[in-house]
Amino acid sequence: MIAFGYRTHPVTVWDIEPQMLVNQCNMALDATDMTIQDSTWVEVFGLAWHPFDGTLFGITQVGILFKWEPFYGDEASVKAPNAGAHRLTVSRDGSLLATADGMGSLKIFQSSDLALLYHLSSQDPVLYLSFSTDSRRIYDIRGAYGNVWETNTLARLAKSDYPGHNSDSGSDVESPSTMLSIQTEYHSVRVDKVIALAGQSVGPLYCYGTEDGVAVLCEAGKGKVEEVERLQSFMSIEQLTWIEDGRYVAVSDLNGKVSIKKISKSSLDREAWETKHEFHVVIPPHEGQICQLLFDPSGGEVLAATEMALHKIDLTSRGLVQSVPFEGSGAKWVCHPTLPEYFIGFREMTAHLLRWKDLDEVEVHTYSSLEHSAPTIPNRRDR
Known about the structure:
Blueprint: E1 2-6, E2 9-15, E3 20-24, H1 38-41, E4 44-49, E5 56-60, E6 65-68, E7 78-80, E8 87-90, E9 96-100, E10 105-110, E11 116-121, E12 128-131, E13 138-142, E14 145-149, H2 152-160, H3 176-180, E15 184-187, E16 194-199, E17 205-210, E18 214-219, E19 223-230, E20 237-242, E21 248-253, E22 257-265, E23 273-282, E24 290-295, E25 301-306, E26 309-314, E27 319-325, E28 332-335, E29 342-346, E30 350-355, E31 361-366
Parallel strand pairs: 11-15
Antiparallel strand pairs: 1-2, 2-3, 4-5, 5-6, 6-7, 8-9, 9-10, 10-11, 12-13, 13-14, 16-17, 17-18, 18-19, 20-21, 21-22, 22-23, 24-25, 25-26, 26-27, 28-29, 29-30, 30-31
């Protein structure tokens, strides 16, 4: 069988072989609800079959969860008006349903009577959700990340050997809603998104920066050590980079502030680490957002590349010592692998060789996937 529904049309079930109309689902409008039109009441947002018995579950455009048995009538047998959902999935054994909405809420229902068993509130709209094969976990996708939820409710149901779809309607077996006795509600703590990450090349430490302006120092295998930066403005940490020997880390935020932090072993505990704020500089906002930070091989300078210019920060004088215009949007900067006095910027079709001493462009190489071209020397003074 196949089930479908579309705008201004009720849910319809057809048998594939032989091809014939089985039934259409009609749901009467609540006489007390004058906020919606009749035509929207039966429009569905999602449908899901029970895996065994031909029962159909659906979500209407206004968030009503319903259960319908096409062979036994043209009206939904059970409705859960408070579901407020736009995503729906059914467990593998058919005993549970899960719904999700645009506000980040996830709900688990008993499939037999749509009794609410569990309600979880978290951040970001749910785009997709699914039960694990053993129904102990729920997976969801929210934006660019996913979650795995392992609730006590699902664990207790799995251990109770509740027979689910195999139970008879006249059985004395307790339903999940009876066994759990109350609805469980949980509010997940908001997760601060990680948007920058960098690690030492010679040590176990790494740093990550978050959307809410927190930079955290961590040690591989041990987790968080301490916070390196916490911005009062809540501006996001955009860029992080380490010096080659791991003694310093540079941190930049959305406002253009570049902070230099010194990382060292604690004088009180050789197993612990401590951080010290050395200084910070601010790149003028009109130069554009900072796209990358890069320490020079000697560790005495930091390059701050923006969308419109290159800026050099000196660790000895603790200030911004040079800025040169450079339309380098999209360039990725690296130290020259054999000539420490130079660094290279790679763009889609060109490679730019620059000198650390004065940020002067020495050569520009063009390249493509089909041929290699000779270096092009800028029309500048002899070098």
